[in-house]
Amino acid sequence: MNEDLSKIRQRISQLSKRRQMLENKIMNTGDILKASYYERFIVCGKPNCKCMHGEKHGPIPWITCKKETKTVSTSVPSNNVARTKEMTENYKTFRNAQKEIKKINNEINELIQEILKIKEGDIDEIIKK
The DUF6788 domain covers which part of the protein (predicted)? Predict the structure, then answer.
């Protein structure tokens, strides 16, 4: 029993350290943009344009995000591309850390439930006469 509790305590300690590191990562993440950045190639549709013969325009920096209930997609002005890339990467970092913290919290909760089972007394032993 004590050996089991010791292993659980060690695991909770490891998980807590990992969670602390992830919390620091979240706190130190720069500005975020809740969007996806990508580059796309387009066809403009002008009859004599090179894109009508297979040579598409691009790559054009683009973002997609949710705004209220709608999905919005738009091009990114060239003077904002670097900042947009950085902010969308920060968002990915933030979300990944957040997801991992959730998993850690769930695992810690399961370990606490194991502790409860180990420590829990038997009602039949208590009410014996």
Answer: 13-84
93 CB-near residues (< 8 Å, 6+ apart): 25, 29
Global confidence as pTM? 0.79
What's CA 72's distance to the chain center, in Å?
A: 21
Per-residue pLDDT tens over the stretch 54-113: 899 999 999 999 999 999 999 999 999 999 999 999 999 999 999 999 999 999 999 999
| Sign of the CA dihedral running 62, 66, 72, 78 | negative
pLDDT category of residue 1 using cuts at 50, 70 and 90: low
> Using CA atoms, how far apart are residues 53 and 56, in angstroms rounded to an integer?
8
Distance CA 12, CA 10 (A): 5
Angle at 93 between CA 90 and CA 33, to 5 degrees: 35
Q: In what order do the strands lie in the sheet with 57-67?
A: 36-42, 57-67, 70-75
